[in-house]
Request: fold
Amino acid sequence: RVFAIDRPGFGRSSPSPAADWNDPDKYMQSFVSDVWDFVEAMGWTNFSIDGVSGGGAYSLAILDSYLKSKLGSGNCKDTTGTTEGPAISCHLEAVSLVAGIFCPAGTDGMFPPNKKLASIASLRGWKSAAAYFGLLLLASVQRFVLLQILLRFVSEKRLLKLASSSAMKDLPEVDQNVFADDQAIGLVFLNDVKEALRQAAGPLVLEAKVLFREKYYFEESLRDNWAKMNNAETKKSQDIPRVTLFQGQCDVNVPPSHAHHVHERIFGGKAGSSARLVEFADMGHLSLIVKKADAILESAARK
Reply:
């Protein structure tokens, strides 16, 4: 079974506390804790995680908390690792990053909209506040006025045509063809957008603030704890999740440099390790997610 968890404020999930708007690390840590609450409520003993696009960084944060718990340097809900806690009983079988964003790798190769978000995220002080307020206002107007008009009064076929001609003009041809090749996929995408933004676009703006940063709180601890878990003297293969990074070489939403950065600087980039990089020369962002879905899910599900 596959469960897709909406982050705070998306779909029908409760919005995040106001304090989290000023603390991106706290926002991400809070969601990690929510995931472990969900795992506990489901009573799982084995499970896997797929982090798609913006979910990539969150998946790494979850893996970081899992390794801390296994090494006895914290419990899963204590994502800072400052409180000692026993190792958890459930086993994280696999973690897959599917075109997972990792902004500390930089913006080279990104298409213009994402580069713009990254430049705003780098602002500090009143400039940052002003920029995000403008984005929030614009996004809210688009949500309540433009998006509602489009979704209510424009036919789905027309919406797909608009999306193909405007929103996708900067994308590689293989991604532009995703909706053209199968209109049903485009309709699913439109319905997902409508559901995701049912509580307005504020959470989307916060997501940009969380993801488009020069550093994530878990980078160093994840790198160090991954090395410890894979140490020849202490290695316990049954405790180490399989990590797979799926990446399209034509991707301009999340360029290949992000997957390379994570593979080499977080997981050591060693051949034969339990972290592997799988690249597809003819895939972009949407095309990878859609056309390689079966292979990605199979990788997470296999024992």
